[in-house]
Amino acid sequence: MKNGATKEQIEAVIKRVEELGMKAHPVYGEQKTIIGCIGNEDILRAHPVEPYEGVESVQAITKPFKLASRDFKKEDTVIEVKGIKIGGGNFVVMAGPCSVEGKDMLFETAKKASEAGARVLRGGAFKPRTSPYDFQGLGEEGLRYLQEAAKEYNMAVVTEIMDAREIDLIDKYSDMFQIGARNMQNFSLLKEVGKSRKPVVLKRGMAATVKDLLMAAEYIMSEGNGNVILCERGIRTFETYTRNTIDMNIIPSAKELSHLPIILDPSHGTGKRSLVTPLALSGLVAGADGIMIEVHPKPEVALSDGPQSLRFNEFDDLMEKVKKYLEFENRRLG
Ligand SMILES: [Mn+2]
Question: How many angstroms does the Cα of residue 116 sit away from the middle of ligand 1?
Answer without folding.
Answer: 21
